[in-house]
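name: query_chain
kind: protein
chains: 1
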Amino acid sequence: MKLHDLRPAEGSTKKRKRVGRGTGSGKGKTSTRGTKGQNSRTGGGVRLTFEGGQLPLVKRLPKLRGFNNRFKVEYVAINLDTLERVFDANGAVSPETLSGYGLGDVNDPIVILGRGEISKALTVKAHRVSESARAKIEAAGGSIEILSWEVNKRMPRS
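structure:
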């Protein structure tokens, strides 16, 4: 078999409909558009949102309200029970190690929340830590380092 032997499967392709090529073609005169009327004209037809005169959906819905705050910081929340399950004793918790476990992205700001208990001494590096989480981590013998975060370092997800 050579390249010139290749053909599309039988019936998979159709010939193009050539309209307006004389009355003998069967598709001349009105060129399959019918006689007169809006749709027979060049540029005729209704707009995409037209619903036959009924008030269109785009006009029935309320306008978009409010605004998106460019400076809002969306934290990736990590709870203590997750840290207890994932990390070993004397482990280092940082955005890099968390992204290695599939818990957020390296560029995302991290907040540690206090749900659950922790019994291991962990070194936690996060952008924010809740008061209850701080108390539990320090009671277990761990330490906390707060990382700085620039608001426009990466645009928040919308």
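note: The chain has a mean pLDDT of 91.
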